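Readers of this paper often ask what the protein records in our data store actually look like. Such a record has a labelled line for the sequence and another for the backbone structure tokens. Nothing more is needed to write down the fold, since each code stands for a local backbone conformation. The remainder of this section carries one protein's record, kept here as part of the documentation.
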Amino acid sequence: MPDDLANRKRALRAELRERRRIMTSSEREKATELLTAHLSELVTRFDARYLAAYLSTPDEPNIRPWLNAAHEAGIRVLLPVSRDDGLLDWVLGDGETEREGQFGVPEAVGEVLGPIAINDVDLIVVPAASVDRSGIRMGWGRGYYDRMLGSMEQCPPVYAVVFDNELVDSVPTEVHDKPVDGVVTPSGIVDL
């Protein structure tokens, strides 16, 4: 990656982290409420009975109430476990049982199903730092989700979850960056 591109991504990630850190608790609570409704709508739209998602960190848009509702509704949810080789294993999760994984990120606890378990899901919900209007997702720089999406032969719909101001006109892009089909923000679902 050229130094200029790396520096632009690093600066944008730092700016996004800071914006997330200064959000008020009431802004976060309202965003969580709206995201839960929109994610539930997305599941209904795709009639998803088996999905892949993630355990949100305190700085990320909070999708945990939605994960709990999905689990209570009998929807099977795969949650990622980071591997040292840069791939993701998957665990059938309840959205509650977790441990601290690599990089301090929460990970589900349970029977590890391996990287190919994701091939059977109806919908994938991924985290992002930012997404542009052409669907290019910028993550946090480790490449786990780009590798996962790039390895799938038949990928179901993929939606990233971001705050409203993180859906932008463009993000710095590299060849390996994989697009998403849409984003879910507190304002709604945007198909890209």
Remarks:
- The chain has one domain: 3-72+120-191.
- The chain has four helices and twelve strands.
- The domain at 3-72+120-191 is CATH 3.40.50.10420 (Rossmann fold).
- The first strand starts at residue 50 and ends at 52.
